[in-house]
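--- STAGE predict ---
source: upstream dedup step, 1 unique chain passed
mode: sequence only
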Amino acid sequence: MKTSAKKMLYRVMLVALISAMLFSTGCSCLFPSPTPYGPRVTGDGAGGAIAVYEVRKGSNQRAFYAQKISSGGDALWGRKGVLVGSGYKTSDSFFNLHIVSDGSGGALVAWIARPSSRQREYISHVTRVDFEGNILWQKEVRAVDHMISDGAGGAIIATDYSYNERTLFVIKLDSEGNFPWGEDGVWMYCEDYDHNSLYLASDDSGGAIVI
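--- STAGE serialize ---
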């Protein structure tokens, strides 16, 4: 098969897979509707996908679900998926949701919300879900602007969230939810830093290349 034909086939398969996921989870985000919002998607390593998406439960209440779709387009974690967490937000979370494969049929999901309607500060979480949809652990982190897999069941995240400084933090969570580089990770001061220019790439040795 020619390269161009292969690319077209892969695109068609991807569209079909995501469409199956949206409709099998009851997602109406392709149509005018207040709920849900998303999803973000990663591969499951076996021809399927795992997605994270947001559902509005009230004017400011949000719930975050993870759903696994088989290579045949079947929803494997129930009708709605697995409840990852919930909280309060005044805006939709599409740009705050992140998901990467854990390399074992599960995923690591990053999401953000306020724990109560009275609290003003948002809290960022990273949650690991195994291949059967079980929550293995959940950790609070400084923030998540970008996230990649560490290649060993964990994740590496980067954020510029700091107080009155342009400081870039690169934080690692291992497969057990520990912080091998410390909770603030590796940090550096960046003059005239623009978070829209930040990218991460794996170094294939458990670390990351920061761009």
